[in-house]
Amino acid sequence: MSNTSRTALITGASAGIGAAFARHLAAEGYSLLLVARRQDRLTEIADELTRKHGVRCTVLAADLSDPSAPSQIMEYAQAHGIAIDVLINNAGLSGKSAFADTPWPKLAAEIQLMVTALTELCHRVVPGMQERGWGRIVNLSSLAAFSPPGASLLYTGIKSYVLGISQSLDMELKPQGIHVTALCPGFTRSEFHDTMGTRDAANKLPALLWQEADAVVREGWNAVMKGKPVCVPGVVNKVVASSVRPLPVSLQYHLGNRLNPFKEN
């Protein structure tokens, strides 16, 4: 089957890594189903990619913090005759306040978006991939999954879950022609920090720590195509990940506590 007869579903496709995945896969001839909250931005990207690459780009505005969103996405795909061969679970956010100070609905939305919806979409696309004997799934984890735990934020725990479940799914599904990769980028230049209100803090970090979204996507896509269950893009990030994991749990806890952004000095 050629790429022109395959379709990729990309969540969080309106900016950053999601938009970079859309551009990368369109250039390789994949049709696209682009999902995010911003209809206008999705339409703009779809028009750009259709003009440039001549691929079919379908857009659907949906908020994956809504528990009904995954089923709505798949019903939409079925109604339009779209079979999902590639799933890029990219949609995400990060909390900005301490756990105890955050209203439960906001925490629940964070979990729904990055844990439940991600897992449900995997579950919903796998049967079709099994029938066709081919599939590729990239789940956006983070370098944070390898880092010491940070107080107050769910983000580290969520991304650790994504790392673990991706490896488990890859073990189960690879014999059926389906590759699953946890893509674990570090600091990536995108609109994420503007959306989360962390741009000022991000700008203080050394340039050496940053990657462009296109570079992250290239490494991630190459990894899933080669059947690598984990991809940490960038030399600096690889060094960080390999350095932290061997540390004793007690030392990781100590480092995480010292780096706690909510700790009073």
From TrEMBL:
Residues 6-165 form the Ketoreductase domain. Pfam families: adh_short. Keywords: Oxidoreductase. Gene3D superfamilies: NAD(P)-binding Rossmann-like Domain (3.40.50.720). CDD domains: SDR_c. The keyword Oxidoreductase applies. InterPro entries: KR_dom (IPR057326), NAD(P)-bd_dom_sf (IPR036291), SDR_fam (IPR002347). The keyword Oxidoreductase applies. PANTHER family: NADP-DEPENDENT 3-HYDROXY ACID DEHYDROGENASE YDFG, VERY-LONG-CHAIN 3-OXOOACYL-COA REDUCTASE. Belongs to the short-chain dehydrogenases/reductases (SDR) family. This is SDR family oxidoreductase. The lineage of its organism: Bacteria, Pseudomonadati, Pseudomonadota, Betaproteobacteria, Burkholderiales.
